[in-house]
Amino acid sequence: MPLLKRLILWLSPLVVAGCASLEQSTPTAADWTTHSAQVATLQHWTASGKLAVRTQDASESASMVWRQQARNSRIQLSGPLGVGAITVESDGDQLHIYEGGEHRTIDISTPDAIFTSTGWDLPLQALSYWLRGVPSPDNSLQALKLDPQTQLVQSLTQDDWEVRYEKYQLFQDLTLPTRLLIQRGATRAKVIISQWQTASS
Asked: Under 8 Å CB-to-CB from 96, ≥6 apart: which residues?
């Protein structure tokens, strides 16, 4: 399976949906308990940017638009000039992959379904939390390091995956990651988010 397709499957729980564009400004200090609770409950959002994934065998990059409406995710990935555009939709139980006129469905209701179908051994459900800058409540937290000034996460480790946060931005009243690195073993993924959006409550 081409790496871009496998990359899309890996990232599908991260995608999000939104309406109101968020004004960007410099991040400010926040109480971690309050901030993490607020971000963790954010259910309707959109993240637009780029991602790059490197494994022992290959590397790939793509533009990304991630939309989330509660459990429903929609991810659009494409190469330069829209080449190789793929859309992935998920309700948490199944992945629907659309590429050109082709449609493929994968059952992801069991923990090993993604690995069996794609060869990617990645914590898909955790990624939707990591993208927002908070640990997943469903995975064992091995380490968490906060910035002493901003009380934002500098790095976290869950299930031997290390997530490093290189940059944040304040969008209206929410401070969200704009650059993060996710890695374990030979797998390394960089996500750069240029725009966050949220839907009106």
From this structure: 88, 89, 90, 103, 104, 105
Domains of the chain (ranges; CATH) run: 3-198 (2.50.20.10)
Distances (CA, A) of 66 to 87, 141, 157, 195: 10, 25, 23, 11
pTM of the model: 0.77
- Please name the residues in contact with 27: beta carbons below 8 A apart, sequence gap of 6 or more: 150, 152, 168, 169, 170, 175
Q: Classify burial at 96, counting beta carbons within 10 Å of its beta carbon; exposed 0-12, middle 13-18, buried 19 or more.
A: middle
**CA-to-CA distance for 193 and 69, rounded, in angstroms?**
18
Q: What is the per-residue pLDDT across 115-141, written as a single tens digit (0 to 9) for each?
A: 565 555 556 667 878 999 999 888 889
